[in-house]
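Pair request: fold both.
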Amino acid sequence: MRVRTFFLWISPLVLASLLLSMLTLKALGSRSERTWWSDGVENRLRQLVGRDYVDDIGEEEERELFYGAMEAYLQGLDEYCTFYDPEERKAMEEGTTGKFGGIGVQIASGDDESGLLITGIRDDDPADRAGVRLGDRIVAVDGVGIGDVPGDEFIGRIRGDPGTEVSLGLLRDGERIELAMDRADIKVDSVVGVEMVDEEKKIGYLRIVSFSEKTGPDAAAALTRLLGRGAKSFILDLRMNTGGVLENGAVALVDLFLPTGPIVRTHGRSRSSRTVYQANRAGTLAPTEPLVVLVDGLSASAAEVVAGAFQDHRRGLLLGERTYGKFLVQSIHRLPEIDAAFQLTTARYYTPFGRALQRRSPHRIRGGLLPDVLVPRTTALTRDLLARFGRQHGLHMQVLDEPEDVPDPQLERAVALLRGARH
């Protein structure tokens, strides 16, 4: 029995007419569905507000209203989508490079009257050289009081181009003083605390504070130093690491320990968001050495990419507490017309073997990675870690509750496991 195939011929003119009709109907449908969003509606609203609102609206206030509208629109998508005004954009971009112009202090917010509490001062940075002390409160920057501008803008005024002068109004022991200093390049190290925690068993330790463009090369340099000292196993501390740069940060770090295989998968609606990052044997420095990764409830996003890759491949043992559960990818889009930017969730992370562990609070789904070895942390240890981690940055630290010198059972358990590991 022969199978007959029929070909239907259509005039090119008729075909073009049909396609044009379909596109026209689709366009009309799109416009009719989105009449609530158009330049005409927006301009009409702005005209009415500018003409009839009870108070006069100045240019600066209108700009803030626009920024607020952008932020509200993005936040309606999910909690990680956000708008960056020009000052916030600059600070965000500085965070990814690991360097910015500043004075070298850590601050905690206070109310408008008490000012910003200085809780940490970096050794030999501008604030330290100018005589700023722990416990001082910043109440003015270049003559602008803390209550005169929004909080984020006030903090942003402390930063600036290296070499430029900034004057701080400080409250110290109830008295107002003024200190001037020149801003400098402030380097925020991504890899800190590099040491041998057990000389006899040659157990190396390094902590990743966050993931920046410098994490890959900095971690490679730290690992090379430890290997040069004879390190045979490693503890990678990702506690309190909330994430950062993916490719040159998290992926580059995993590549130092994992010789082959997928590191992380991303999947979104656009083709460009569907990627599988693979380990490269050529860049691996410690392919077989025993590894323990410390994690906690603040280990999130890029930190979870690292932990998930090691857990899936059984390359490292996770120890500590369940991680946060942020398995979403954000991309930064510039708005050069207004010197701003916005962050948009564009994909989901998946571990090498396909686990999606995004937390969903409304559905009470906890998400995150469950450690192989669960070791809870006390409040006292949390306070102690904050001070200890600050000292790793060269910060003189002051916290609201004075930390006690308490043991670190998570680190101690990691050392004990590696002492018994085969080398």
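--- second member of the pair ---
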Amino acid sequence: MKTIYEVIVSPIITEKATAAKEHFNEVSFVVDKRANKKEIKDAIEKIFKVKVMDVKTVNMPGKVKRVRLFQGLRSGYKKALVRLKQGNKIEFFQGV
């Protein structure tokens, strides 16, 4: 069994994720590849003390990158899109 801090790896802070946070109250996280939706929901609710309405997961494949003659592959990751109940929110940058 994974602890709640092993399930959530990091938040995703991009323009698209910020727009989803403002319009749909949906926050994105990089999560452990072996984590399921139930574990993700429990971890978010315990860490941030919010109520989760829905969890969607996506396995993001690694991208192929080239440096001159050599070609490599970035590692893939699992992304979780977490929709919060109305009135709940998660702030990553408070007071900035």
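Observation on the second member. The longest helix spans residues 37-48.
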